[in-house]
Amino acid sequence: MALESFAFNVAEKVLEKVTSYAYQEICFAWGLQGELKKLEDILLTVKAVLLDAEEKQASDHQLRVWLAKLEDALYDAEDVLDEFECENQRRRVLQLYGTTIKKERVMTHSFVKESDVIGRGKDKENIIRLLQDSSDGGQISIIPIIGIGGLGKTALAKLAYNDERVNNHFQLKMWVCVSENFDIRNLIEKIIKSTEDGMNYGVEKLSKMEMEQLRRFLQEIIGDKKYLLILDDVWNDDLMKWNELKELLCTGANGSKILVTTRNNTVASIMGTTPTYELKGLSNDECMDLFTRWSFKEGQANQYQNLLKIGEEIVKKCKGVPLAVKTLASLLFLKTDESYWKSIRDKYLFEDMQGLKHLRTLSIYLCKSLISLPQNFKYLTALETLNITRCKNLNLTMEEGKDDQDLARFRLQKLALVGLPKLVEFPEWLLRGSTNTLQI
């Protein structure tokens, strides 16, 4: 295949990903719609250039060097988009196992039990160091903490907020959960109410104040104190709104700090005066520690080694996101039925097959609750080895899948079906497309 044709196929594949609904959804949540549109435009241009390149002579050395570099760049782009796909799966965990979806976001508070937070000791020290830094030239420093939902941004902010060194460093501390409603008056009221003077004045009186009165009251409370303000869970990416609020906060002593938590890179860029602090996922060991705390009573985990092994598989699927670990672990608390644990593990495995389309080997073992393979099993077109063992309730007839043309793309090399009492005939739909590749 000509190099330009190969690059064209890769570009087309990347463009297909970029224009998919999943990526549109993620980019909307992260405020990257503009960047995604630019990438789409660039890829369309690249495709046009590649079509033109096919008409050039194959011996054009400069052209071939350029095409080779382009191919590498396109593969890098595909890797980045695959990371986006993993992010989409993490979000699905919370959607799949959450109890109730609410229209309003839960308001946060500043209290935290430090022993309940795992794996954030180093991050806490880093944030405290930034809060104590005095090299800001007399300006108020605004420090953004960014990370996907469920990583523990709020927990980290709480750890720093309640540390004794921070208490001693600042004369005034305020905590406000901003969420999606970035209304200036509402935020000023919240900031005032988070102070002792504000609470003593009375919530009802504050609600009757004019905006000018609120401004004066806030600036009287702050005065010339060195203050720390936490703005938790910020979604606003409107620069004008942020500047309006910032003008009201440009008071207080040198060294005052505003700590912002957000999921959105654009928000961090707009608000931050220091480099963004990007929060990473927990290590596998830290996730396992958290998982056992939420799935077993204290001291009981070692009594269930069989369940711990299943738990390790579940934890790996959570990709270091503490909230995902706690959500799944809480479903298993006080439950010691091995089949139930496996059903939780398997339910997540099969819920988003499209995200596993590069999977080459799949083994399904002792899944008593598995009745049928999901309809989107067809996305596993890279699958080479399939091993299904002792799934007593699994029905592989899948009548509704027999006419699905997508199943013809399977290229299985090894197939093992053992201990399937409901298997009454060989699954012809599963073999379609594997006639020439299956090793007998």
Automatic annotation (TrEMBL):
KW Coiled coil (keyword) present: yes
Domain called Disease resistance N-terminal: residue spans: 12-98
GO molecular function: ADP binding; ATP binding
Keywords of the record: ATP-binding, Coiled coil, Nucleotide-binding, Plant defense, Repeat
GO biological process: defense response
Keyword Translocase among record annotations: no
Residue runs in coiled coils: 36-87
Domain NB-ARC: 123-297
InterPro entries: Apaf_helical (IPR042197), NB-ARC (IPR002182), P-loop_NTPase (IPR027417), Rx_N (IPR041118)
Protein name per UniProt: Uncharacterized protein
Species, as recorded: Hevea brasiliensis
